[in-house]
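Re: Re: ligand-bound prediction request (bumping)

Still looking for help on this. To restate: I need the protein modeled with zinc ion bound, output as structure tokens. Inputs repeated here so nobody has to scroll up.
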Amino acid sequence: MSSEQAPITDSTTAEGDPVPTNPDPQTPEPPIDPDPGPTPDPIPPPTEPIVYQPYMWYSATWTCRTVGCVNENLEFDVPMLYSNNGTNVGVFCGRCNKKGLILTATLLDPQPEPE
Ligand SMILES: [Zn+2]
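Reply:
Sorry for the wait, this slipped through. Here it is.
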């Protein structure tokens, strides 16, 4: 008689395949580029022509439209701008020596005292 039993082999693996739930918690975030465009957006020109009173002082803002000028599409303040005869009003860019585009002009109130 043979009561010999085959040894029970446990073929099941208790470990199983480890499943990584968090393979790389140190994954760095990609750097955020806050300003990818080196050229600023063009400043829109005034929707209506600016009407100046003659021989008055204004405060104004202006921009340079010269392509390639370091002042191109930057906005500048002019604290005091004289209107001359009311039509010959201009701001010249100090970088390209071309006439700038006046964006806004505000009559100074009160007007500066004449020297
Ligand atoms: Zn310029």
